[in-house]
Design brief:
Layout: H1 13-43, E1 71-75, H2 87-99, E2 103-107, E3 121-124, E4 127-130, H3 132-143, H4 153-180, H5 182-188, H6 193-197, H7 203-225, H8 232-250, H9 263-276, H10 285-293, H11 295-308, H12 312-318, H13 336-374
Parallel strand pairs: 1-2
Antiparallel strand pairs: 1-3, 3-4
Amino acid sequence: MATEVENTPSVPAAEEKKEEVAEVEATPVVEESAEKAVEEVKEAPKEAAPAKEPAPKKPNVFKQNFEKDVVYLYQFARTTSLPSLSPYVLKVETWLRLSGLKYENVDHKFKLYSKKGQLPFVEVNGQQICDSSNIIKELSQKFEKDIDVGLNNEQKTISHAMISMVENHLTFVIMAWRAKNPGEMVNGYKINFQQSLGSKIPNAILNFLFKVNYGHRASKKVKAQGIGVHKPEEIVEMGKEDLKALSELLADKPFFFGDEPTLLDVVVFSSTAQIYFISDDAKYALKEFIVEQCANLVGHVSRIKERCYPDWDEICNNLELNPHLPKPEPEVKENKEGADTEKAAEEEKESDKELVKEKVDEKIDENKEKEVAAE
């Protein structure tokens, strides 16, 4: 009897071999692809965490809590003769007042100097500006306060030449006299170092130290400039020539270029004030010359002073740095002890009133009882 057997279809031997080879070859390819994918995942850049915003840098200035657009002028202490013994400081402050900018003076306390080691310097909006000429130039541009805007080209040329003469020649003539006569300088400007510095050291010692230190440093400066190598009488003559040139240019005008002051007026004032406002206790040939031979320059100094420094006397008498600023109202502190005492007195008064009322009421009741008993 024949049995039906279901035969499974067979694969030829050659084909089986091919499939085995294919499987063997496919395995490393798959593994290699997998490894590659893992590596790509590893190498894929991670999402960067959001960077923290750097903390704002503190401005590199002495006045950290500055007010916006307020100019902080670092300068020397006041004197009893004029606001500043430095022509360059007086120049900047006079320009600030003339331009109407809000400013505040800061005493450098003999330790606060600009990055260049100079005085004066200013700080405005966290920025430091050095050198009096740069200060005025940058502030003029920043706040649009050019007081020379009305000058023509010829006047600007004259102004530039005369400012150069004053700052690079006349100022050193004045410094040469001070370097040679520091004692006369102290007497002439009535300098009280003890008061100006707030020091307890006797004035005699402070005066001596000033004479030695200032005389030496100022002499080095004027010699380096060139004027200091000349004899004192020769230097005086140079100063007279400068003053004569300024006097002739001013003539009978109120200011050098008309009815309104310009930068030249400010610069000339800052130097001629050093000459004119020195006391007669000091014998100074240039003061005698300006009073006797240059009366119009004396008038010029007075006009700038009246226009820019209505508080001149307050500055010089009280040595105040900022009399132009409104003074804060004094704080009114509550006297707690006084308030408590007053309250206690009021309470005692009320208590006395109640006691009196009680006594009166008792007396009335007592009288009523007596009347009832009598009936």
